[in-house]
Design a protein that fits this description.
By secondary structure, the chain is an alpha+beta fold. Among the domains are: about 200 residues, Immunoglobulin-like (Sandwich); about 110 residues, no CATH class; about 30 residues. The chain is built from 29 helices and 12 strands. It has a 5-stranded mixed β-sheet, covered by helices on one side. α13 runs antiparallel to α14. The radius of gyration is 41 Å and the shape is elongated.
């Protein structure tokens, strides 16, 4: 049978792939395991629900084949599993005080273990789908099982349809006693079905799959290698790789290192570390005092395994082994000591689908964009590391991805550390805080960082820096106690790698306290950090601090800031009455594009107007439209005594200013039309309609009403004069008398 399976596995690769996600299960002593076999590599997320967990898959909705989901398990932990018709998520209801931990066994195979007890602190799988914290399932009491009627177990009917399906699915079938089942006669979807069966074995803990397949000895007729898959104690089936080069290439054309070359997890040894080191060190030299290459290789690898990179490099330099893998060992030794790869052995290998992707990310602090990294390979290789290396390298790896903006991968790395039992180390707490901060959860980040500030060593220093940056990012003022801690740490960090980062953080802390002289002194020599301090001064500094630092002249060196920050400085200086300093901040735009270029020209025009240079103000806004430009233009024209200013004010909607300019230029018809004040309208009408006051009633007994005599004309002039005098008095009473200037 196994040879038939081999033939099927080799022949069915090009066939159509099934779309359903096959779900199998296995019962173990301390946990229940679910294994999901996807047709394609999924982008999945596990979240908490009221009664258990939900699994969502990004993209097209997946269908789930739950035929064998209950076959080999009881309902002690897993109560029910079904697809939510509304959201398409797979809902997993539990019947115990337990928690779920997922991991990817290999490409397209996701494993979910349901374990007793509370979830690890900070586990992202305990958050709801919206990201809120859920009540722990640790206090959940198992649901009481109904007692079967003696002698009538086979006929007892389940309460509803869901329970009927669960009951039927948990009934063993004779066909399931076989380790594998042959696919139907047609081979469509056979590859997926075989992977499903292998996943079943993985769920039960009886299948172990190696990650590499050696090339055949006879290319013409490949031989079978039965060591790759083991079902129980029976040799299983091996997929042969004849005719296929397993060494993928980097973008530069370099062959990717294979997993066998980087199997750090397999370089350990049983027994206490002290005894093992002594044993390995005592056998490095053989007969005639000649170094034993195999013993040296074992010792070097073991030192890399336990994280003693400097000691591994010392062995290499002392004995100078000729093994072709020496450059790899040297690179790994440097990396486990958190240093860059000196020989660039892993250069470009972040794209490799092997363990090399992990070490390439760890080898250089500057990583490429996430879309150019084989992230599944990185996570797979990291999960395979021994726990002590995961805890040691995990925070560094997670921060690399955080710096690239990939919080999801950083969270997966943190979860791979938290899955292991035992206390959580400060470095992992620090990574957790950085993830929270990257996701905008400042409160959670501060709560996590605050207890770490008192730690000794790199964790205490980095947590101090992160806490300051978190408070600055939140707009808080950094308190004096935290500033004092940072100042003390700076004395210890002088000359070290972290001195610059700590200085930058202290500069930001001083800026939140409006101590900008101290802030600029702290970041002197670091232009990038100085930009942050200048920006904080522009947006939140006091007027006194701004005037002390930002009133510059032509001979001063101006910082290279964004156009937006330059305009912020200019606007504040103009408001404070420093138009000449305003123009210096607006001399030329910086950056490749300026979406606020119009605002910049308006500020230039306003500064020239404040300097009473109306022609320069008009030149600054040539061609500009809009109310702000019209108001500035009207004021400049008014300064030039130009009557057209009235029309421009009117276009800008400022009728009062338009009427005032019209009065200054004796345009009484415009005043009559524009004035909101009835008094000014009446006064303007005296000039806009000359002789109007002469239109008085004449004695109706006169024979010729069209002729007005001298007496009537005189009476009319006196009446008009009296009305004008009264109107003038009203106008004078309404005018504000300016204060007397000595």
């Amino acid at each position: 049978m196994k040879y038939l399976l081999v033939a099927l596995l080799l022949l069915i690769a090009p066939l159509a792939k099934a779309q359903a996600v096959n779900v199998t299960s296995g019962e173990h002593g301390t946990f229940t395991r679910l294994v999901l076999s996807f047709p394609n590599q999924p982008d999945w997320r596990l979240f908490r629900t009221e009664n258990g967990y939900g699994l969502s898959v990004k993209g097209k909705r997946q269908s789930f084949d739950l035929t064998d989901a209950y076959r080999r398990i009881s309902s002690n932990r897993l109560s029910r599993i079904f697809k939510d018709p509304a959201t398409g998520a797979l809902l997993i209801e539990v019947n115990c005080a337990c928690h779920a931990l997922p991991f990817e066994l290999r490409d397209r195979i996701l494993v979910i273990d349901i374990k007793a007890g509370p979830a690890p602190d900070g586990s992202s799988f305990e958050l709801s789908e919206s990201g809120t914290e859920m009540t722990s399932l640790h206090g959940k009491k198992p649901t009481a099982k109904p007692k079967a009627v003696p002698g009538n177990e086979a006929t007892a009917a389940p309460a509803n349809l869901d329970e009927a399906i669960n009951h039927a699915a948990r009934t063993p079938r004779s066909a399931d006693k076989l380790g594998f089942r042959l696919p139907p006669a047609n081979l469509e979807g056979a590859e997926e079905r075989l992977l499903w069966q292998l996943a079943k074995g993985a769920a039960q803990g009886t299948v172990e799959i190696t990650k590499t397949l050696p090339a055949p000895q006879i290319p013409a007729r490949p031989s079978l290698n039965e060591s790759n898959i083991t079902v129980g104690q029976v040799p299983g089936v091996a997929a042969n790789t004849a005719g296929r080069d397993a060494r993928h290439m980097t973008a530069e054309g370099t062959a990717c290192l294979l997993d066998d070359d980087l199997n750090v997890a397999g370089w350990g040894a049983a027994g206490p570390v002290s005894e093992t080191i002594g044993l390995l060190s005592s056998n490095l030299v053989g007969e005639f005092d000649r170094p034993d290459p195999l013993a040296i290789a074992r010792a070097v690898k073991y030192h890399v395994y336990i994280g003693f990179g400097a000691e591994a490099l010392g062995l290499i330099r002392t004995f100078k082994p000729t093994d072709p893998n020496v450059p790899i060992w040297e690179a790994l030794a440097a990396i486990v000591d958190l240093k860059p790869d000196p020989g660039m052995v892993f250069s470009g290998m972040e794209v490799c689908n092997t363990n090399a992707a992990l070490w390439a990310i760890l080898a250089d602090s500057e990583i490429p964009p996430p879309n150019r990294i084989a992230i599944p390979a990185v996570l797979r290789a990291f999960s395979a590391l021994p726990l002590h290396l995961r805890r040691h390298l995990g925070p560094v790896l997670g921060n690399r991805f955080l710096s690239a903006g990939d919080t999801e991968t950083a969270r997966a790395i943190r979860d791979a550390i938290l899955r292991a039992p035992g206390p959580i180390e400060p470095a992992t707490h620090l990574l957790d805080a950085e993830i929270a901060r990257a996701n905008g959860h400042s409160d959670k980040a501060e709560a996590t960082l605050a207890p770490l500030v008192g730690e000794t060593g790199p964790v205490g220093l980095q947590s101090t820096i992160s806490l300051i940056e978190t408070q600055v990012q939140s707009g808080e003022e950094v308190g004096a106690p935290l500033t004092t801690v940072a100042e003390a740490l700076l004395q210890e960090a002088k000359g070290g790698d972290e001195e610059a980062a700590l200085r930058n953080a202290l500069g930001l802390a001083y800026a939140t306290q409006d101590r900008f002289d101290a802030a600029f002194a702290m970041v002197a020599g670091n232009p990038a950090a100085a930009v942050d301090v200048w920006t904080m001064l522009a947006t939140g500094g006091s007027d006194d601090a701004l005037l002390a630092a930002a009133v510059l002249d032509d001979t001063d060196m101006f910082p290279r800031l964004s156009d937006k920050t330059n305009q912020t400085f200019a606007r504040r200086l103009l408001t404070l009455g420093f138009p000449q300093a305003t123009l210096l901040w607006l001399r030329k735009p910086t950056g490749t594009s300026d979406p606020e270029a119009g605002n910049r020209q308006l500020l230039i025009g306003a500064a020239h107007l404040a300097l009473r240079d109306a022609p320069a103000a008009l030149r600054a806004i040539i061609g500009m439209t809009g109310r702000d430009a019209d108001v500035l233009r009207a004021n400049a024209l008014a300064m030039l005594q130009d009557a057209s200013a009235s029309e421009v004010f009117e276009r800008a909607g400022d009728m009062e200013s338009a009427a005032q300019i019209a009065r200054q230029h004796h345009e009484w018809p415009r005043v009559a039309n524009l004035a909101n004040d009835g008094t000014w309208r009446d006064a303007a009408n005296l000039f806009a309609q000359p002789g109007a006051a002469l239109s008085i009633d004449v004695d109706s007994t006169r024979n010729d009403a069209s002729v007005v005599g001298p007496l009537a004309t005189t009476r009319a002039l006196l009446a008009e004069s009296s009305a004008a005098r009264e109107l003038l008095g009203t106008l004078l009473s309404q005018q504000e008398i300016p204060d007397q200037v000595d």
